[in-house]
Structures are given as C-alpha cells and as structure tokens.
Amino acid sequence: LQTFDQRVEELQTKTESTAIAYESETEELRRLEGLYSELTLDYEKALEQQKLKQNEKLKVEAAVIIQTWWRECCKQKIITKTKTNTEENKKPKKAKTTKK
Fold first, then answer.
1. How far apart are CA 59 and CA 62, in angstroms?
2. pTM over 0.70
3. CA-CA distance, 100 to 96, in Å (whole number)?
4. Distance of CA 42 to CAs 53, 81, 87, Å?
5. Residue 74 to residues 11, 16, 35, 44, 88: CA-CA distances in angstroms?
6. Among the listed residues 65, 66, 44, 63, the one whose alpha carbon sits nearest the alpha carbon of residue 55
7. Keywords of this protein's UniProt record, alphabetized (predicted)?
8. How far apart are CA 28 and CA 17, in angstroms?
9. Cα 51 from chain centroid?
10. What does 8-30 look like in DSSP terms, one character per residue?
C-alpha cells in the first residue's frame, strides 16, 4: 500500500509539473501568435505598398512610351506636310494664257 501511495504521489507530481509546463507553453504560444499576427499585418502592408509602387512605376513607364510614340507621330506628320509643301512649290506652274 505504501508503494502504491508513493507511485500515485510521483504520478501526481509529474502530472502537476506537466500541467504547469503546458500552461506556460500555451501562454507563450498565445503571445507568439499575437506577435505573428502583427508581423503578418505589417508584411501584408509592406507588400501592398510595394505593389502600389510597382504599379505606379509601370504607369509612368507606359506614359513615357506613349508620349514618345505620340511625339514621333507628330514629327512624321510635320515632315510629311513639309515634304508635300516643298514638292508642290517645286512643280512648275502652268503659264496663264489669256484668251483673245
């Protein structure tokens, strides 16, 4: 009977120490989960800002390309118009004849 009481007491002590360790680990887990959720939010915000910056950069690059293309179109239009005007000026004019 005494051996049984000792064994039960040892098991009770072991169970209590395990319960205390479990509670402290659970508490630590909750604390770390809170920190993790904060870090996750910060990370998502950083990713969103990076994505917005990247989109803004792409928009600026697209605008530059479109503006360059438009300037070239305008230059070509001016060059074509100038060529047409100079060709018309080089053509000999018909002499005006007067009817008698």
1. 5
2. no
3. 13
4. 16, 58, 67
5. 92, 86, 58, 45, 21
6. 63
7. Coiled coil
8. 16
9. 1
10. HHHHHHHHHHHHHHHHHHHHHHH
pLDDT tens digits, one per residue of 36-94: 999 999 999 999 999 999 999 999 999 999 999 999 999 988 888 777 766 666 665 56
For residue 41, the 8-state DSSP code is H
Cα separation of 60 and 54, whole Å? 10
Q: What is the DSSP string of 33-66?
A: HHHHHHHHHHHHHHHHHHHHHHHHHHHHHHHHHH
Tokens 């005006």, residue located: 96
